[in-house]
UniProtKB/TrEMBL annotation:
Pfam families linked to this entry: LRR_8
GO cellular component, one term: extracellular space
Organism (species): Notothenia coriiceps
Protein name stated in the entry: Prolargin
UniProt cross-references to InterPro entries, sorted A to Z: Leu-rich_rpt, Leu-rich_rpt_typical-subtyp, LRR_dom_sf, LRRNT, SLRP
Segments for region (Disordered): 28-61
Bias type Pro residues, positions: 43-57
Biased composition (Basic residues): 28-39
Signal peptide range: 1-22
UniProtKB keywords: Glycoprotein, Leucine-rich repeat, Repeat, Signal
Domain LRRNT, residue spans: 75-109
Length: 382
């Protein structure tokens, strides 16, 4: 019985083992990877062109206005300073202001330099009838209303240098004593600009764009008290006409002047300083005796095309002839007095103290006749 049971168990185990060995595992079908359907691209639409931006103007952004300190004066503009030590002065300089504030009636000295003011109108000056001094230098002024000066009839000093003016302002008050218009863009002086200005002593038109056609024959006719005229650094080709004989200082450096009329300085009894540096003067355009002026003390002719030393008066003390084309110097010819005069009598000799000749075609030593003539010479550059 036990043997049969064992045989049956062995047979059952054999059949199960055979079934395990003969059954093959079912393979799962291999799926090929499928591509993801592509997302259709939208057609590119060109962006509309941005409108061209205008060129920025300098400065593109003004700095903020600088307010002044609190003041005891209720009429003191916020953008200015009013010091109790100087009750007649209104200090608005370096405050980045664009418009002139209302000027208090007590103001006599008005400082508006170094700002961003573009025009000067009459409104701020309605009650400022006591103003004596106005400084508008280094702004961006391109226009000054002629009615401004009707409000300030006692004005003595007007400084408007370093701005954008193209003409001399009109309606200037007859009281004016000093007018500074240097470093603007002035191309002409309108007729009558200086009419009735007999008190003007200083006129500065330095570094503008004035040509011969921009200055009329009678432009300076009424300036009977003028002492200094500065027309340096313009584009003049001729000496300005009608210059008043009251002048003491005449500055014409850095122009294109090539000729000085023989009688140009006739009638000048007080002229002491003449500057014609950096022009186009040659011997042909410079009469020999044109600078024989009794009152002349300082003559500057540097950086021209002179080949010889012009004659000059014995009262001259400073002579600048550097950077010309001078090849020789003859003391006998240029000496204002005879070399035979008594050397011990210094009062009779020429008064020349400073002579500059460097930048020419000269070589040391200095000719003896030059030393013998100019006995007061303290310095000579060769």
């Amino acid at each position: 019985m036990k043997a049969g049971t064992g045989l049956f168990s062995a047979l059952t185990l054999f059949l199960l083992l055979g079934a395990v060995l003969t059954v093959t595992p079912t393979k799962k079908p291999i799926r090929k990877p499928t591509r993801r359907p592509g997302i259709p691209r939208r057609p590119s639409v060109p962006k509309p062109a941005e409108p061209a931006q205008p060129e920025p103007q300098e400065p593109t952004d003004f700095p903020p206005v600088i307010l002044g300190l609190p003041s005891m004066y209720v009429d003191c503009p916020r953008e200015c300073s009013c010091s109790p030590s100087y009750p007649n002065a209104l200090n608005c300089e370096n405050h980045n202001i664009r418009n002139i504030p209302v000027i208090p009636p007590r103001t006599q000295y008005l400082y508006l330099q170094n700002n961003y003011i573009s025009e000067v109108t009459a409104e701020p000056f309605i009650n400022a009838t006591e103003i004596r001094w106005v400084n508008l230098a280094n702004n961006r002024i391109h226009r000054i209303d002629k009615n401004v000066f009707e409000k300030v009839p006692a004005l003595l000093y007007l400084y408007v240098q370093r701005n954008h003016l193209k003409e001399v302002p009109s309606g200037l008050p007859a009281s004016l004593e000093q007018l500074r218009l240097g470093r603007n863009r002035i191309t002409k002086i309108p007729a009558g600009s200086f009419s009735h200005m007999g008190n003007l002593t200083l006129l500065d038109l330095y570094h503008n764009q004035l040509s011969d056609s921009g200055i009329g024959k009678n432009t300076f006719k009424d300036l009977k008290s003028l002492v200094q005229l500065n027309l340096a650094h313009n584009i003049l080709k001729k000496m300005p006409a009608g210059v008043p004989s009251s002048l003491i200082q005449l500055f014409l450096d850095k122009n294109r002047i090539d000729d000085v009329p023989k009688d140009y300085f006739d009638g000048f009894k007080h002229l002491a300083f003449v500057r014609l540096n950096y022009n186009q003067l040659s011997d042909k355009g410079l009469p020999k005796t044109v600078f024989n002026i009794t009152s002349l003390l300082d003559l500057q002719l540097s950086h021209n095309q002179l080949a010889s030393v012009p004659l000059f008066n014995g009262h001259l003390e400073h002579l600048h002839l550097d950077h010309n084309s001078i090849e020789s110097i003859n003391g006998t010819q240029i000496c204002p007095y005879s070399l035979e005069a008594d050397p011990s009598d210094h009062s009779m000799g020429p008064r020349l103290r400073y002579l500059r000749l460097d930048g020419n075609h000269l070589s040391p030593p200095i000719p003896l006749d030059v030393i013998m003539c100019f006995r007061h010479l303290h310095s000579i550059v060769i």
